[in-house]
Each structure stands twice: as C-alpha cells, then as structure tokens.
Design a protein that fits this description.
Elements: H1 3-18, E1 24-32, E2 35-46, E3 50-57, E4 60-67, H2 68-72, E5 76-80, E6 83-85
Antiparallel strand pairs: 1-2, 1-5, 2-3, 3-4, 5-6
Length: 90
C-alpha cells in the first residue's frame, strides 16, 4: 500500500467515524501480550489524527484516544450494535 493509499484510507475511516460522534459504541483494543481492553462508551470527538472515546470505569469518567491507523491495522475495533465501524470495505 502506497503512502497516498494509506492517507486516503485514513481519511475514509475518519469520515466514517464522523457519522457516529455522540453515539454509544463498543470498543475492543489489543494491548499486547494477550491483553484485550473492552469497553462500552461514547465516541466523543474526532480530530485530524485521533478519535476520543469516553466511558465510565468504577464511577469515574475516563477518556481514551486512538489513531485512525489503529483501526486500519485492526489493533482497535469499534462497533455500533452488530455493525463494525471504521473499517475499509472492499
């Protein structure tokens, strides 16, 4: 994949996520060494290079951010209901 193709793919992923800002999503992130982080939260905001997910953990509001490349490489998976978002469809 060329650099231009990667840039276009990341732009498409960001555009896809923009439609889900403010909605409840399910996030699953691979943290390495067989550790997986799973949480139900709200897609709070999208920025040019990252997106932010807000969730509650033990009565404390937390935010995590990931890059669009994390979605492209499938290190992070997002879904709304049974629909996976932020992925490239052939």
């Amino acid at each position: 994949m060329s650099r231009q193709d990667t840039t276009n793919a990341l732009d498409l992923i960001r555009q896809d996520l923009n439609g889900y800002v403010g909605q409840e999503i399910y996030l699953r992130a691979n943290k390495g060494r067989k550790k997986v982080f799973e949480v139900q939260g709200v897609l709070e905001q999208t920025y040019p290079k990252v997106f932010v997910v807000r969730f509650n953990e033990r009565q404390v509001e937390r935010r995590v951010s990931y890059s669009y490349a994390d979605l492209l490489t499938e290190t992070v998976e997002l879904s709304v209901g049974s629909t996976r978002i932020g992925t490239q469809s052939p």
